[in-house]
Design a protein that fits this description.
Chain lengths: 326, 274
């Protein structure tokens, strides 16, 4: 296949591969939706019974079941649910008595803001840690960074958050311990109120990223071209910035996209501890109040974003690897 | 025995020894909590809430005036035993299914792998939340949910290990002798993949501790009157602004347990300095 494609532009060989990945991601998302619906919609028993309570007569339950469409076969219910989610109108929240779409569109920008800033901060931090570790390979700095990142991987988000609050808002009085989101707040004020959540989230994401960056850079440093450049007298910082990093960028970006998917798990805890009105804390509330339509939509958004991240990581790996491209 | 233990510790890196120390410490606390805890778990011992450390209460009192040290020991017992149980369950189920899929092959492998791939493409905390919303969170359910959440990850690793093994001659010979699936799995394949499997179980343990304490912290995990370390952080969160030991102690307890286990597993890796 590589031979016959040689007359076409270089990027041509990638297209079917990427289309295949997109297709299989869509298939996975479809299967995930079936899992979410089965667990939350079919298995827990009768929503009508639960809403009416123990004292309801069988007739009342029958009527409500019919109104809610629970008396129809599981297949029909699943596909109707799926269509409503895809159409962006997953119905009414049981608890808030508002359309789910409205509640979510209220919260989503907040989470995107938090996740976006965290992504930028953690990518920069991870790159720095990873590169510093790799160029000092085996040295004291590298060993220290290794133990630090290895420990951070296993540190619960709420410890970082708790210690952060203790240090910066209780002892030093620098930062607020609750992040209120104010529409008119300036960027400076917003960053100040988001500083602790961002710090906690970053600590969760950065460790894995830094470890993979270090591995990718260290791998490149072993290549003959680095030795050649050194022998030619190219300054080491130039070698790292202009020769090694561009070559390592594929695996690094791949690692970053994968690590950023940890953001969601972390966001659940961090948004709750700081009372941040985002999508993750909304989902936690939906679980507490057993608000299934809201819960299902939140779960599908998180799973969809996660799959997109993995897909992006995959595609970048393909684009960055000439052997997969040809 | 003692000398083997000694040489095992000697072979570990410094960070591995720290990890071993923490893990042993928390295991002992978990096992002996009922004996060594100074007070019973729900006992109100003092009128002062969030008091600092004193001779009577080494880690002070919590938001209701209960002894933090005792609650910490009992909490560690729930955290460690639940997570250990769930990790063993997850690895047992995941590996059994993986061996079954790898040895039988064909459509069984196809279907099982597809299901596991689907489950693995859901973030584990999201999957656990959906399960908790559907079924609730009694201790037994939490154990089952935590195990279920981490079966797919173990399945994937165990299947990859098994696939490498079943291509080897001794498995082919056993097949030619006409041995059954169970015999091949138990006698030929499993003994050759036990070390990476144990390492994987250690990692699952760390994940499950983080998952369960996270759920409890959100109020969706272990419910009163029981309390694990995550519940202790949650119930004392109002003491955060006073810098109470009641919230810091359990948070540090979880971190030392998971970080310790992680350092130990890393030191035991074949590529590591062990």
């Amino acid at each position: 296949m590589a031979r016959t494609a040689s007359s076409r532009p270089a990027w041509f060989g990638v297209v079917p591969l990427i289309l295949y990945r997109v297709g299989s991601a869509l298939l996975t998302l479809f299967l995930v939706s079936a899992v979410v619906f089965t667990i939350s919609g079919l298995l827990p028993g009768d929503a009508a019974q639960e809403i009416l309570g123990q004292s309801a007569t069988p007739e009342q339950i029958q009527v409500l079941r019919h109104e809610m469409g629970l008396d129809r076969p599981a297949w029909t219910r699943y596909f109707e649910w799926l269509v409503s989610i895809i159409a962006g109108d997953p119905g009414m929240s049981y608890v808030a008595n508002m359309p789910v779409a409205e509640i979510i569109s209220d919260r989503l920008p907040n989470t995107l803001k938090l996740a976006g800033i965290t992504a930028v901060v953690s990518v920069v931090t991870a790159l720095t840690i990873g590169v510093v570790g790799a160029i000092n390979r085996g040295g004291r700095i590298d060993k220290t960074l290794n133990v630090v990142t290895l420990s951070l991987v296993a540190t619960p988000e709420f410890l970082v958050a708790t210690l952060g609050v203790l240090l910066f808002s209780v002892t030093l009085l620098w930062l607020p311990s609750i992040s209120l989101v104010n529409e008119d707040a300036s960027w400076g004020e917003m960053l100040r109120s988001l500083a602790l959540p961002i710090m906690s989230l970053t600590s969760v994401v950065v460790a894995q990223m830094a470890r993979m960056t270090r591995a990718a850079v260290a791998d490149q440093l072993d290549r003959p071209y680095v030795e050649m450049a050194r022998l030619k007298g190219v300054p080491f910082s130039r070698i790292v910035l202009f020769h090694v990093l561009p070559n390592a960028i594929g695996p690094i970006v791949n690692a970053m996209a994968l690590s950023l998917s940890y953001l969601f798990g972390g966001a659940l805890i961090v948004e709750t501890i700081f009372n941040y009105p985002g999508l993750a804390s909304l989902m936690v509330n939906a679980v507490t109040s057993r608000d299934m339509p809201l819960l299902q939509s939140c779960a599908m958004i998180f799973c969809g974003t996660y799959l997109t991240m993995v897909l992006v990581a995959d595609v970048i790996a393909i684009l960055a690897n000439p052997r997969l491209r040809a | 025995m003692t000398s083997r233990l000694y040489s095992f510790v000697r072979a570990l890196s410094a960070s591995g020894r720290v990890g071993l120390g923490f893990v042993t410490f928390w295991l002992l606390i978990a096992i002996f909590a009922p004996i060594i805890a100074p007070y019973s778990i729900g006992e109100f011992v003092d009128r002062t809430v969030f008091s600092g450390w004193s001779n009577a209460y080494w880690l002070g009192t919590d938001f209701l005036g209960r002894d933090v040290l005792s609650r910490l020991m009992w909490g560690a017992r729930y955290t460690v035993l639940l997570a250990l149980g769930a990790a063993i369950l997850a690895v047992t189920i995941g590996t059994s299914l993986a061996l079954f899929a790898a040895i039988r092959g064909g459509w069984i492998d196809e279907v099982l792998s597809r299901i596991m791939d689907t489950l693995i493409s859901m973030p584990s905390k999201i999957l656990a939340l959906v399960l908790v919303a559907a079924f609730g969170s009694s201790l037994t359910l939490l154990l089952a949910i935590a195990a279920f959440t981490y079966v797919p990850g173990n399945f994937r690793i165990a299947r990859a290990l098994a696939m490498n093994l079943i291509a080897l001659d001794f498995v082919q010979v056993a097949r030619a002798r006409g041995e059954g699936t169970a015999y091949i799995a138990w006698r030929e394949v499993l003994p050759n993949m036990i070390h990476p499997l144990l390492a994987d179980m250690g990692l699952r343990f760390v994940f499950i501790v983080l998952l369960l304490s996270g759920l409890s912290f959100l109020g969706l995990g272990v419910q009163p009157p029981y309390a694990d370390l995550g519940s202790l952080v949650r119930e004392n969160v109002s003491g955060l602004t006073e810098g109470a030991l009641a919230i810091i102690a359990p948070a540090i307890a979880i971190a030392t347990l998971t970080v310790g286990a992680n350092l130990l597993i890393d030191a035991l890796k074949p590529g590591g300095k062990a």
